[in-house]
Amino acid sequence: MTDGPSQTGESRRAAGRAETRARILAAAQELIPTAETSLPVSAIARHAGVAIQTVYDQFGSKGGLLIAVVNQIQQSRGLFKAFGEVFRSPDGETAMRRMIEATVSFWDGAWPYVEFLLRSRRIDPVVAREMDFIDRLRHAHYWAIVRQLEAEGRLRAGQTADMAADQAFALTTPTIYEELAVRREGTAHDAVETTTRAVLGAILEPGLAVAPIVQPPDWAALEQAAAARAREAGSDPARLSSEWAGSGPTIRPSGHGSEAS
Hints:
Elements: H1 5-31, H2 41-48, H3 52-59, H4 62-76, H5 79-86, H6 92-109, H7 111-121, H8 125-151, H9 161-170, H10 174-183, H11 188-203, H12 219-232, H13 237-240
């Protein structure tokens, strides 16, 4: 059985669609760093050399294009790879430290894009809606980690997993990074260290001796629960990326305790 003309033609059309999609995404990434508070689809289409309708045919909506751009930036800046390290951590505190480092390092590495999104979400309802979507996914990651800390008995007395996840999320927002590293001209390393101290100080019981971890974290189950929670809130992780969870096989800790500050 040989490939017929129709199959060859379909392959060429698929390649053409992929090339057009890549060109549109590249155009958006080129324009975002110099945009002020708005970036119309028409400007992206013009820069990519395609019709406006072609953008909608490829991405469905302006929001769909934005999600695709964010996903590509996260992948290229190594965020999903960093998530893999987070969810192979031997305990909850190590995972939280790694998540904070991954998050703040991403704000630093992708700052021209993040800064535009912060400006744009205040005036553009489409950007605001999509950033809310992404924020719920980020919050779900923290919730999964906090659930592990709760299972280890590490949370402050009276602190619930929901409360601790809210605090970890709030203290790792890009506006916190902006104040620490952009406005005050600090380094990304300093921002990571300061943020880590703030988060751990807010959610962990002070002076509590860390007990040996008998049962290694089941990160896959925790992330599945977090994904279900995000979907209930209106944020399906699959819409962002199949790599969202980043959970690998759990590893058995070599000792107890956590990484040094």
